[in-house]
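Handout, page 2. Input:
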Amino acid sequence: MFDHDSKIKSLLDELDAFIADEIRPLESGDNARFFDQRREYSRTDWENDGLPADDWTNLLTEARERAVKAGLYYFALPVEFGGRDGTNFEMAVIREYLAKKGLGLHCDLHSEHCIVGNNPMALVIRDFGSEQQKNEFLRKIVSGEYGISFGLTEPLHGSDATWMETKAVPEVRGGVRGWRIDGEKMWTTGAYHASHVAVFARTSGADGDALGISCFLVPSGTEGLRVEERIWTFNMPADEPRISLIGLWVPDTARLGDEGRGLACAQHFVHENRIRQAASSIGTAGYCIAESVSYANTRVVFGRPLSRNQAIQFPLSELHTDYTLLKNMVFSVSKQIDEMSKKEVSDKISDVISMCNYRANKLACDAADRAIQVHGAIGYSRQKQFEHHYRHHRRYRITEGSDEIQLRKIAGHLFKFIK
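Output:
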């Protein structure tokens, strides 16, 4: 069991105080509609392709600005860019802690919103960007001027990213060396309001090769980039459009990292994101388990508390066991990430990160489903949060690598397919 040191305890106390003073009041009054049974209806602009409603977006912006002012939002970024050099371990603890509080403006996972921002692309730019890119992007990300969507998946290629059909070829325009990009991207989350899309395209090599894919930071207003379709999802509002790239041109300065080694940027993104996603899923599972135990202790059926029945006790005990084991594993692995280089993480514990992500995301879904069952009809209703948590975390079992991709990674290390 992890016994958090005084620094972590002080940080969690700081978060609690900020939530009590700044966030809870912001959730009250008319804004309560975004968190009660009206939440999906209130958050979604149904007549505008199902995008997030302006009122909801403005509320998230207000919460984020308050968190920035309090010195919390950019916690994980370097000090020189307004952060606190937050570690992966600290971020895992924070994400689990906030998710365990349940639905609220402090941490709305469906919107990828949290008072302590994730910002994985900022860390990718920190580690792979040129000095010019670091100075431009990191400062403007911190100021709120820039936001970056992630364009890896394609309509015909999801987990098989090395088979992507988007191509980039060298082309000089106006005497400037650059790249012409043609292709399509799918599930480019947040593209409707992002300043840039991180577009991955093959620049050399053959289909299936890991090398030969490059990453480009493409401004959203670039000619040739167009939103083709906005796809409604299991949990609304939705902001995961399909975009086309037709004759799009960017200068070579838009390339992030070494030519042909763009998947290293993507791997950095998913390693950081997968362990934090796992921590959030564990926190949600903890919330669902705690709410179920509390309800079972107070709900009286056939003259005695519901919790007296082993049919209630045993499933929740199993979930609680998994929650405890996984929580400690995620915290342990996040500490390992902090102690290794990026290459060591990829070579030595990529499979363990997949274990955390796979089991934690499944646990969140199982715990939400069990909470619905324990609560009965009221659990199935929108008066409780469980249906929202289930729908959100069901997405996590596909994004950042599906269950099957996580198992494939684990098997690759187990059977030595991956050296």
